[in-house]
Amino acid sequence: MKRLFPAVLPALMIAAAMTTACTPAETAEIGGEWHLIGLDGQPAKAPASIDFAADGKVTGKAPCNRYFGSYSGTLPQIAFAAMGATRMACPDLDAETAYFNALQTVTAAEVTTDRLLLTGPEGRVLEFVRDLSKGLPCQSCTKD
Question: Would you call 113 exposed, middle or buried from its count of C-beta atoms within 10 A (0-12, 13-18, 19+)?
C-alpha cells in the first residue's frame, strides 16, 4: 500500500489541476437556474432545467428525472463530471435521452443576460433561458 500511494499521487495532482472550477465572476454569470427552450436546432420537446451552484455543483430536472454532478472550466470552456440521475419512467423518456446525450457532449458555454448556450462538437446546442415567463423564442432553432 505504501508503494501505491507515491505512484497514484502525481496522477491525482494532475487530474485536480486539469479540472479547475469556474471563478467567482464566472459562477455569478452562469450561476442559477436555466430552463431549456431548444435542443439541437429544435424547440424543446419536454421541460428541462439546469442549475449551476457556486460550489461547482450542477443539478437539474430532465424531462423525467432529477440529475446532479459537477462542472468546471474557465468560460467559455466547461465540462461536466460525475453525473448521475434518478431512474423513474415517464412518457418523455425519448426527450430525456436526447437531453442527456447532448448534455454529455458539452464543451463550451456562452452566457448573455437572458440566455445560456451550451455547445458541443458537431454543432450540438442546448439553449436555455433564465425566465420562461418572458416567452423568449429559441434563437438556435431552425425555421421550417
Answer: exposed
- pLDDT tens track for 20-77: 556 544 667 899 999 999 999 999 999 999 999 999 999 999 999 999 999 999 999 9
Query: Rounded to the nearest 5 degrees, what angle is found at the Cα of 37, between the Cα atoms of 32 and 39?
Result: 110
Question: What secondary structure does DSSP assign to 89-111, as a single string?
Answer: --TTHHHHHHHHHHHTT--EEEE
- Amino acid at position 69, single letter: G
Tell me the whole-structure pTM to 2 decimals.
0.81
Distance between CA atoms of residues 82 and 57, nearest Å: 10
